[in-house]
Amino acid sequence: MDKTLFDYCRYYKGEKECPREVIDNTNPAFWYGERFFVENSGNNEIEESTIHMYVQCGLAGANYDLPIFLLASLFQELLKHSDNDPMLDAVFFKEEFLPNYLVLHQK
User: Fold this and answer.
1) Helix 44-56 crosses helix 28-40 at what angle (to 10 degrees)?
2) What distance in Å separates the CA atoms of residue 102 and residue 8, rounded to the nearest whole number?
3) What is the pLDDT of residues 8-42, one digit of tens each?
4) CA distance 51 to 15
5) Which of 25, 30, 59, 67 has an alpha carbon within 20 to 30 A of 51's alpha carbon?
6) Which run of H or of E encompasses 23?
7) Mean pLDDT value across the chain
8) Which of 106, 103, 102, 44 is nearest to 74 (CA)?
């Protein structure tokens, strides 16, 4: 059976606003990144530019059994709230943000 986009999402379930439970109990960036992934999947221009930044920052290559566009969407969400060099954010993403997401994603 093929997975739907929502099957890859733990936090975003189609709501218009980030639920209070997510805000209070986890990182809302997870919800926003998953929403971006669902809303923009199939838009080749957005997918390509989002994945391009992810690859440019050296984040491609690891297999987490998740679509690269979902991972790139999470990274883009992190970048939206940072004034750092994207390469510095890539280190944080790889060492802190993504492992935290993956652990919580498996629950």
Assistant:
1) 130
2) 11
3) 999 999 999 999 999 999 899 999 999 999 999 99
4) 25
5) 25
6) helix 20-25
7) 92
8) 102
For residue 93, give the amino acid letter: F
Count of residues in the chain: 107
- pTM tops 0.85, yes or no: yes
Q: Where are the alpha helices (DSSP H) in 27-97?
A: 28-40, 44-56, 68-80, 86-92
Residue 9, Cβ neighbours under 10 Å: how many? 20
Which residues lie below 8 Å from residue 37, measured CB to CB, with a gap of 6+? 5, 8, 9, 12, 67, 69, 70, 73, 74
CB distance 6 to 14 below 8 Å: yes
